[in-house]
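Deliverable D5.2: sample structural annotation.
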Amino acid sequence: MNAASLDKIIIFILRIFVGWTFLYAGTWQIWEHYSAAGFLGHVVTFHNFFAVFAMPAALPFTDFMMKWGHLLIGLSLVSGLLVRVSGPFGVLLMVTYYFAHMQWPFIENHLSFLVDFHLVYATVLVYLIAHNAGHVWGFDGLLEHLHPIERHPTLRPLVG
């Protein structure tokens, strides 16, 4: 096995694993009618900022965006479709969770000093975006060669 093949396999596995994490989270949140109110109520760092999203007027929107955001990011990553679009939203979500759990210098608990899994996921997502992960056995590679994408170059950044 050469290095290029190994790189493709690793990119594919990372895309599927991180995608599955988002997909499962979104599916579970939708099925269980999960609300972000509990999570937002326990935010320590930047509490005033996060409290805005827990206000009664904003909470339905926050819940909708959280649930469906997880689900759509997961579907995008697992299928390899529009990874360059969903990836930055996944990074934003992971960085947001990172800061929400922070009790400086610990993240969430005493076992996570400065770094936790949210930063690891965010870094993996940046790697996947930078390496066109949707082209590695995903739909982005197929869509790039379709007539509408070739006819309209402004659409090309979405898939490649």
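Annotation notes: Residues 5 and 129 are 18 Å apart (CA to CA). Residues 3-159 form one domain.
The annotation will be released with the project's public dataset once the embargo ends.
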